[in-house]
Specification:
Blueprint (H helix, E strand, L loop, with lengths): L2 H7 L6 E5 L5 H7 L22 E8 L7 H10 L3 E2 L2 H10 L1 H6 L2 E7 L13 E4 L14 E6 L1
Parallel strand pairs: 4-6
Antiparallel strand pairs: 1-2, 2-6, 3-6, 4-5
Length: 150
Amino acid sequence: MSFQAYLERCNPFEIGSLTVLSGLTLTQRIAAGQYDWVNRSITEENFPHGPTTAGEWERRLFMFDRALSSDEVVDEMKRELWLPGQAEHTLASGAVFPEEQRQFPIIGLGSVAQAPPQLVVGQWLVCRLPVPGCPLLSLFLPMIFLGVFL
């Protein structure tokens, strides 16, 4: 199914609810999403998390009609009173709504890797759900950003 056909069939940009369970490790969250491919940089060490993301959240996907930097995307979300999704939100979203992450890459800008600077010079290392089987193809599809609201 094409990206356009998917958007016509359902509107993933509507506000919905999302439950982030407490007590799960990042590895368990990744396993729950049954992803075809996982970047080896998505680790507990690079993406430490705490209990603050657990609970019920409103979720919304954002797509912009122009090129924006990561900082500009976060600013746009905050202008509408949304926060960028953290790794836990992004992985929970992928597990609960698996068809979305099969249609377009979903990016959570709320968790930036705590990796050594030489690994992330000039870019943010963030949690991104790629299109299964085609991690590089995801670079050519529209970028979708996950926003959350408590």
